[in-house]
Amino acid sequence: MVITVLVKRPHEEAYPLEIRGTDEINELVGGEYELLSDDRLEGISLLVNEELRGVEANNFPITTDGYRDWVYGTCVFVKSDGTSLSESDRDAIRAYLAAQL
Predict the structure, then answer these.
(1) Are the C-beta atoms of 90 and 54 separated by less than 8 Å?
(2) pLDDT single digits (tens) 21-65
(3) Reduced to 3 states, what is the DSSP secondary structure of residue 99?
(4) What span, in angstroms and rounded, lies between the C-alpha atoms of 94 and 15?
(5) How far is residue 20 from each of residues 16, 26, 92, measured CA to CA in Å?
(6) pLDDT tens across 72-91, in order?
(7) Which of 1, 35, 51, 80 sits at 20 to 30 Å (Cα–Cα) from 19?
(8) CB-based contact 74:60 (threshold 8 Å)
(9) Residues of 8-40 as b/e, b for ≥16 C-beta within 10 angstroms?
(10) Measured distance CA(80)–CA(62) in Å, rounded
(11) Angstrom distance (rounded) from CA 46 to CA 7
């Protein structure tokens, strides 16, 4: 199954990408990924490589359960239910990222 995700690398604009499975996500984030969420992005999950914390450039801040933290390295945004991100989902994520600046 192919799904559309949004990829955000440090210091770059987020872009949509069609992926076919978890191997592609591992490749994008540079290793094993962990699932994060942000209180402000309902229905969207963030896939990141937590081993890159402090090694790769910080990307953007997130808020989880009221606590602020940083995402390091590449982040892949996915629908929490495993389906493709819609255009309105991608617009909401871009607005969310723009508000972080």
Answers:
(1) no
(2) 888 998 999 888 999 999 999 999 999 988 877 777 788 888 888
(3) helix
(4) 9
(5) 13, 12, 23
(6) 889 999 999 989 999 999 99
(7) 51
(8) no
(9) bbeeeebeeeebeeeeebeebbeeebeebbbee
(10) 16
(11) 10
Do 74 and 28 form a contact (C-beta atoms < 8 A)? yes
User: 101: which 2 tokens?
Assistant: 């600046």
Q: To which H or E segment does residue 21 belong?
A: none
φ/ψ of residue 56, rounded to 5: -90, 165
* Exposure of 70 in the CB half-sphere (CA atoms within 13 A): 13
Per-residue burial over 48-69, b = 16 or more CB atoms within 10 Å of its CB, e = otherwise: bbebbeeebeebbebeeeeeee
